[in-house]
Amino acid sequence: MSETVLYDYWRSSASYRLRIALNLAGIAYLAVPVDLVARDHKAPEHLARNPQGLVPVLEIDGLRLTQSLAILDYLNETRALGLLPGEPGSRARVRALAQSLAVDVHPVCNLSVASHAVDLAGGREGVREAWMQHFIRPGLVAFEALLDGFAPARFCCGDAPGLADICLIPQLYNARRWQVDFSDLPRIVAVETACAAHPAFDAARPEAVQPA
Predict the structure, then answer these.
(1) H helices of the chain, where?
(2) What local confidence, expressed as pLDDT, does residue 1 receive?
(3) What's the predicted TM-score (pTM) here?
(4) Residue pLDDT, tens place only, 122-163
(5) Could you tell me what percentage of the chain is helix, strand and coil, using 3-state DSSP and rounding each to the nearest 5?
(6) Domain 88-202 falls in which CATH fold?
(7) CATH classification code of 5-81
(8) Mean pLDDT computed over every residue of the chain
(9) pLDDT computed for residue 111 by the predictor
(10) Rounded Cα distance, 57 and 53, in Å
């Protein structure tokens, strides 16, 4: 079997999701950094891997895959990770919970979008922070409310980590980075504590994989 290679950036939320999932699956991989700040993602070499110029890119099982949510589906289906419930209605609800962050919050808070907002504001100080806070805090409040639809458990939707947890934890990293307070959201705080104690999440932390 060919070596599994993850092209990622240590602070990328989407890459962070895949690091967690690969750890949950027990898949050893070679991490190849793609420095977004240095614009390595726009270099011809990376565009040949992903014409969108985004991370992550995962080479696994002889495939080259892009888009973190699609890759998570692939890993879940081929490695039986149990990231989603088997019942279709429950599966849709868990997907909606995860996508409330991964689809609605994360894209407007990625590096390229936030940088463009700063450019449009003439580089004014504080714009990036205000932009991030404007989107992240309401997204987390909504996530907490959506969690009320699930029975209390150790993780978001049960006693084992799933898709929602994989999408939540990178967003909480961003929240802390941009000084977004979520201490008043008790279920989110409890899930963060549970995930922090899980080896797969701990090993995927940006600080744990940051290039020297």
Answers:
(1) 13-25, 44-49, 68-79, 88-102, 111-120, 127-147, 163-177, 186-196, 199-202, 206-209
(2) 54
(3) 0.96
(4) 999 999 999 999 999 999 999 999 999 999 999 999 999 999
(5) 55, 10, 35
(6) Glutathione S-transferase Yfyf (Class Pi); Chain A, domain 2 (1.20.1050)
(7) 3.40.30.10
(8) 96
(9) 84
(10) 10
Please report where in the chains the tokens 């947890």 appear, as a residue: 165
**Type and span of the H or E element at 59:** strand 57-60
DSSP string, 63-109: EEEE-HHHHHHHHHHHHT---S-SSHHHHHHHHHHHHHHHTTTGGGG
Backbone angles phi, psi at 159, to 5 degrees: -95, 5
Which residues contact residue 82 at a Cβ distance below 8 angstroms, ignoring those fewer than 6 apart? 76, 160, 162
Q: Where do we find the tokens 């008043």?
A: 184
Residue type for position 121: A
Q: Tokens 């002889």 label which residue?
A: 62
Domain map of the chain by residue range? 5-81, 88-202
* Nearest of 167, 169, 193, 150 to residue 83 by alpha carbon: 167
- Residue located via tokens 């209390």: 152
Strand partners, 5: 30, 59
**Which amino acid is it at 208?**
A
> Rg of the chain over CA atoms, in angstroms?
17
C-alpha closest to that of 100 among 56, 79, 69, 127: 69
Instruction: Average the pLDDT over 25-50 and give the result.
Output: 96
Tell me the average pLDDT across 26-53: 96
